[in-house]
Amino acid sequence: MNPGLFRLAVVGSRSAYGRLAGIAGGVAVGVCLVLLLWGGANGLSARDDRGAWLRETGRPAVAVPAVSGDPSASGPATPVPMTAGTVLMRTNPVEIFRDQLINRRDFAALSPSTVKIPGIPAPPEPGHYYASPALQRLIESTPRDQLGDRFGQFAGTIDDSALPGPDSLVVITGATEAELRLSGRASLVSDFTTNPYGGSAAAYNTVLLIGAAAVFFPVLLLISIVTGLGAAQRRERFATLRLIGASPQTVSSIAAVETAVPSLIGAVFGVVLAAALRPAAAQIPVNGTRVFEADLATGPVAASAVVAIVVLASALVAGYRTSRAGIGPLGVTRAVHEKTPTMWRAVPLMAGLAAMITAVVIIRVLEVHLPWLESPLLIGGFVLILAGIVVIGPWLTQLVSRTGLRRARSAAAVIAASRIHKTPVATFRSVSGLVIAVFVVSVFAGASSVIQTTEAPAARPGLLQPTSLHATVGTGHTPARVLEAAHRANELPGIRSATIGYGPAALHERDAGPEIFLRAADAPALGFENIPESETVAVDASLLHFWTTQPLALSPAPARALEGLVPVVMVLGTDGTPEAMDRARTAMNSSGVTAIPATSPMDNKLQSSTRLIQGLAVLAYLGMFLAVAIAGLSLAVATASAVLDRKRVLGLMRLMGMPVSVLRRIITREAAVPLLTVLFLSVGLGFLVAWLMVTGIDDSYRVAWPTPDYFIALGLSLLLALAAVTATFGLIRGNTAMAATRFE
Amino acid sequence: MSTNDTAAPILSARGLHHSFGQTEALRGIDLDVHAGEVLAVMGPSGSGKSTLLHCLAGVLVPDGGSVTYRPAGRSAVETSALGEPERARLRLSDFGFVFQFGQLLPELTAADNVSIPLLLAGTRRPEALRRSRDLLERLGLDGLGAKLPGELSGGQAQRVAVARALVTSPAVLFADEPTGSLDSLASENVLTLMLELVREAGTTVVMITHDARTAAYADREVIVRDGAIGAGYRVSA
């Protein structure tokens, strides 16, 4: 291509420089977000990989022989001996400090042991512990009786390679073999799993891909909108080139190069920007912990691929659009009329819904397990629905604008409705990002709502009190030792009561009975009101289960019922302050008599969400933030583009006396009508898709009504739209001045 | 400078100066435009005639000098001393504009394009459309009210622009090369219809043109050269 010709096409005026800067800036933001998003996905994946070993459950530490002739019966359990190639591990389901979950693993090992526990040089000695740096900081800044006493003596920190993130709270403690075996929860481990998702890997990947598609889509829209910036101005310039002899192919090539150059500059700047923002991005806590900065790096290959794809795609689109615009020597020779949208535009949306519904029917109604079909249907359906909203939008917009035009009364309404009616695709494109953002927000709000269905239990008689903590007692501890531990705990500040429950055997043993016995005098401390006239009372053992929501009644027990029973549970009542709760936990966990870490009915709120749903929530936060931010940017760019492309005719209207306020109303209406038309569809579809997605993945979850946060997010999206449109008001005044009406 | 001696000027410019950066576009122009006259402003490209029209119409505020507008039945107003909102209101209510090309909103029908000034002035839409269609009919465009600008010929589009400029019955019509983009036949057709309507309504016209044949339709012409009025003579009584 002739460099002089190219220079003539690309440069030469302040507005051309502004347009090129706009394209470069928009592409920079888009590429930066793509790389940060990619890095985020890498980071989450790396985080899961680092923490995979925590999913290790080991194999049983006892052997239970079958009884010959009776497949349902089993003989007495015998311990499987530990060897140098195995360690005994106790997985503690809940170790909580304040409202934070601590991953705790207790190990007993022979010396020497060949088992490599991730992140530490050797298994800790009994009474010693290794902690993650974040947990050790927490321990050091907290009174020992609230946290540190739970773990023993500090032996060292766990290496980052075994920690999901820099904020991860992980502790590896040393214990004796007897202690772990008595708890009834020990297992033998010879090596640690590297599969971070276990059986739910496919479902997790499905959610991850759907989330990625949802967030990438607005980014692609942004890049598409930005590269179309000032298309009308460019057409004038290209017409001049045609007049002086450039062929249509030359003009298309110039358009492609003209877009490719600022796109390349913007894309490279985007890569630099992403690298610069990586430390800041690493500070964002996701699911309670940040991600290691190194995990957010995408590497030069990925960055180069993103740059190449974005530049190539934007150049091809620009060249194609120009070749289709029919630019002749005297300008655009044929009016570029948009095709009237028809109801065929509903097909992709319907196809997407059909795909997702089919997946749900296969999984839930037919109950056929076809993983090779389910995920593609769910992901493909989701992508089709995303695209379908963008495709159906112009048709719905045109239907609404037709009615609007008939009812229009003011000049602004007539001008805006006419433009929307004649160019529904172009006008809808400017708000499509926001419409998609609202859809994404609704999907994530709907999908995340399953987490929020678990409410904190209320204090009710007949149930364990929310301010109490309990722990089952291990096998073989004498009543005197357990009582002594309870009395010691009872003397701590904030602890109001210490109650021991009894049974025929430890609750994890086969001989454990269905009831727990306690002294009637201790019952009020547990919150019971109607106490039978008896020295000893009994209550169903389900009292200890977090899913018990119906109050239980006490029944009288024989006076000598406690004789021959063993302590099976210790319950501490507290004043409900966080300090007292953690003091009680620490007292019980360090007492040496409890089989599991102390739990409170309140803890359920912290752990009821599964790993999968937590992953979904992570994507929800990322998706909501990115989609809304990008969409606001897209709308601002598209609105600015709409002003720039019509600056001459709008300038003439101003010259004839049309107030700037009317021009503002026109621009606002042109954004508001398509936005509001499809907004409600987006919201409805978002929740429908969330339900299909959640049901398709696991039917034990239910989509609930969105929380106020969702409506706040929705309101913020609309405010952002208003802000984006308002931001262009200055552009209206500046670009519709008298100078804009001249055509040289 | 040439003036009509019998009628009071509806527009008076005194000592107009205006510059764009280092370029002096107007250098102390004095000009009176009388009510009901058709004034042609001629001159070579870059002579300052469009700048003069924009100053007279209150689009531009001159760097020096003044423009006074004397509407019938109302007190005179110095437009060059008004703020932009007041000048915009004045342009909307008292002035009409026709340009060379590209002045119609491409997505609006011809009737809607014509009705916009009425809607801006607060007229109800059915009434505005009725008046627009009436005017289009008088300009020989009956039946074309529902067409888009892109579906009209150059001459038809220019007559729609004339209709839009006259629909509010302005006191002064400013026309900047109104037939500059038309062939001679279409040009004659547009000018004849436009002048027929303005003479019937008594509208004053300030028309910029390069074309002597177009200027021949005017009552008077002035020539602007290098930002100053060179010569003027009455072409018809």
From TrEMBL, chain A:
Q: InterPro entries recorded for this chain?
A: ABC3_permease_C
Domain ABC3 transporter permease C-terminal, which positions? 214-319, 623-732
One GO cellular component from the entry? plasma membrane
The residues that cross the membrane are 20-41, 207-232, 253-277, 297-320, 346-366, 378-397, 431-451, 618-644, 671-694, 710-732
How does the record classify its membrane topology?
Answer: Multi-pass membrane protein
Where found in the cell? Cell membrane
Classify the source by domain of life.
Answer: Bacteria
Keywords assigned by UniProt, alphabetized: Cell membrane, Membrane, Transmembrane, Transmembrane helix
Quote the protein name from its UniProt record: ABC transporter permease
UniProtKB/TrEMBL annotation, chain B:
- Record protein name field: ABC transporter ATP-binding protein
Name the source organism: Arthrobacter cavernae
Q: A Pfam family this protein belongs to?
A: ABC_tran
Q: Does the keyword Plastid apply?
A: no
**What are the GO MF terms of this UniProt record?**
ATP binding; ATP hydrolysis activity; transmembrane transporter activity
Where does the record place the ABC transporter domain? Answer: 11-237
Task: Please verify whether the record's keywords include Ribonucleoprotein.
Answer: no
Q: Name one GO cellular component term.
A: plasma membrane
Q: Which UniProt keywords apply?
A: ATP-binding, Nucleotide-binding, Transport
- Give the top-rank taxon of the lineage listed in the UniProt record for this protein: Bacteria
